[in-house]
Design a protein that fits this description.
By secondary structure, the chain is an alpha+beta fold. The chain has four domains: 82 residues, Nucleotidyltransferase, domain 5 (2-Layer Sandwich), CATH 3.30.420; 164 residues, Nucleic acid-binding proteins (OB fold (Dihydrolipoamide Acetyltransferase, E2P)), CATH 2.40.50; 110 residues; 86 residues, no CATH class. The protein is built from twelve helices and 28 strands. The strands form six sheets. Strands 4, 5, 6, 8, 9 and 14 form a six-stranded antiparallel sheet that branches. It has a six-stranded mixed sheet with strand order 17-18-19-20-22-21, covered by helices on one side. Strands 3-2-1-15-16 form a five-stranded mixed sheet. Helix 3 packs parallel to helix 4 and helix 7 runs parallel beside helix 8. The longest helix has 24 residues. It is globular and about 75 Å long.
């Protein structure tokens, strides 16, 4: 199986895709201007303490106050095997403190934060305020676990903690020592910055999306493709720190078309904006996200089968189970997911579909738990998610239906336009004439989504923008022109 990572940045967004045999398996996206990334550390102030909830709400400069459990202690690290002491926080209104973002704000809920700060390295996680010594459960050899824990224990000062990561299986004492010293210096610099910083300041920012992926998820990957030169240099620097991956396998894309277009990934990303997913046999899924859970409906669609109804339904449900596991991973859907499979009469068929879903979800790095299928052929499962899903970047509430539906976001429209204009120039045109919704055009000009393209791959080209009040937000056209003189309407303007 060919396993590849694709990294790119454009329109103010960093995008990463993990593909197996050319088929996208994971997609991550992050705005480069985002200030509230997971792992960031903020100087906050206690806004109020709710004794009945054993929680405090912290003002950290975000739109909503952050939620801080008072009896969390080492709970954030309970997914690792280890020992340590938890502590109960004693806070009062007005106290200033450092907190770290562990769950992003979503909908009407504010972010979740912790006082148990952590600094992540390649082999170790340093816990400067948490008396905890842990090790990854993926390291299973007893002798290796004992050796690594002893190495980490020697580095601990009173009240500190370390977690040994999976990547540390072959680490040396010298490597542990070097990394621990670096992480301690990072913590000290955070404390120094926090002294004079105002409340709401991010005194430490976690690595951006591609670097986090590079740090954690490269096992067994053959090639890394990068579509941006600045990002390519950053990826190279990180690869040189690893012994398990050669920098020769990092490829800078220099083609005329966008990298995702060149490798057939663009349409796969676009498809994530649709609630409907087609199955290979003609059946389909409909994915509906609600406030409390995500509901997935399985339909036979165009598939009529070749024998009896039970076989037709069973085949569709089996395909659906595997595709559902892929879709929740692709879209990074978390929380409770309810799947309404097509009714099956045979008990063995229900068991087989449930087993197929469980096996497919086992490939997911996020923790999933599948409950038994009911007599109505409804299956519930949970999936842990820490980052926002890709559709939150691609969609926004529709302004035309009292915000009950969704339309493409302005930044996603900029991405689609970027691809279309790049294709136009790749076909040999010097000028691209873009007709689009006036509001989308104004947003593109205001946010400078396409500035990097004009300064790079579109240098020497011209993009003329023609606004239309009658165009829907999702409607646009691009055509090329090589004439020296163009006839355009009075309200046309050159992009930047």
């Amino acid at each position: 199986m060919k396993k590849e990572w694709f990294f790119d940045r454009f329109c103010g967004v960093q995008l990463v895709i993990y593909a197996e045999d050319g088929k996208a398996v994971e997609v991550g996206a992050e705005r480069e201007v985002a200030t509230h990334a997971l792992g960031n550390i903020y100087k906050g102030r206690v806004a109020n303490v709710v004794t009945g909830m054993q929680a405090a709400f912290i003002s950290c400069g975000m739109e909503k106050n952050c939620y801080l459990p008072l009896e969390e202690g080492a709970a954030e690290f309970s997914t690792y095997d280890g020992t340590g002491m938890s502590r109960k926080l004693s806070l009062k209104e007005g106290d200033e403190l450092l907190v770290q973002l562990v769950k992003a704000p979503r909908g009407n809920k504010g972010a979740k934060v912790t006082c148990d700060l952590s600094f992540v390295g390649k082999n170790l996680i340093f816990l400067p305020r948490t008396d905890f010594l842990g090790i990854s459960r993926k390291i299973t050899d007893p002798a290796t676990r004992e050796r690594l824990l002893k190495m980490a224990e020697k580095l601990r000062a009173p009240g500190e903690g370390f977690i040994v990561r999976t990547a540390a299986e072959n680490a040396t004492p010298r490597g542990f020592k070097t990394e621990s010293e670096y992480l301690r210096r990072m913590y000290r610099s955070v404390l120094e910055q926090a002294v004079g910083a105002p409340v709401g300041t991010a005194v430490y920012r976690e690595y951006d999306l591609p670097v986090k992926v590079m740090r954690d998820s490269l096992g067994g990957v053959g090639k890394i493709y990068v579509g941006d030169r600045e990002l390519y240099e950053r990826v190279l620097r990180l690869v040189r720190l690893r012994s398990d991956f050669s920098e020769k396998n990092v490829v800078l894309h220099t083609g005329k078309r966008t990298m995702f277009q060149e490798y057939g990934l663009t349409e796969q990303v676009y498809a994530l904006a649709s609630p409907r997913v087609e199955l290979s046999n003609g059946g389909d899924l409909v994915i509906d996200k609600t406030e409390a859970m995500t509901v997935i409906d399985v339909n036979t669609g165009k598939f009529t089968g070749e024998s009896d109804l039970e076989s037709t339904v069973f085949e569709t449900n089996l395909l659906a189970a595997r595709e559902i596991a892929r879709q929740v991973r692709l879209r990074n859907i978390g929380g409770i997911i309810a799947v309404d499979f097509i009714d099956m009469a045979e008990e063995e068929h229900r068991a087989a579909v449930e087993a197929a879903l469980t096996a497919a979800l086992a490939e997911d790095r996020a923790k999933c738990r599948v409950l038994p299928m009911s007599d109505l052929c409804v299956t519930l499962f949970t999936r842990k998610r820490s980052t926002s899903d890709i559709t939150s970047l691609m969609l926004k509430p529709c302004p035309h239906c009292t915000r009950q539906g969704f339309v493409f976001s302005d930044i996603f429209m900029a991405m689609r336009i970027r691809n279309a204009v790049t294709d136009c120039f790749a076909n040999g045109y010097r000028a691209a004439i873009l007709e689009l919704n006036r509001g989308v055009m104004e947003e593109i000009l205001r946010e400078h989504y396409l500035t990097a393209e004009l300064e790079g791959p579109w240098r020497g080209k011209v993009v003329y923008m023609i606004p239309h009040r009658t165009f829907h937000e999702e409607q646009f056209t691009v055509r090329g022109d090589n004439h020296s003189v163009l006839t355009l309407p009075d309200d046309a303007q050159i992009l930047y």
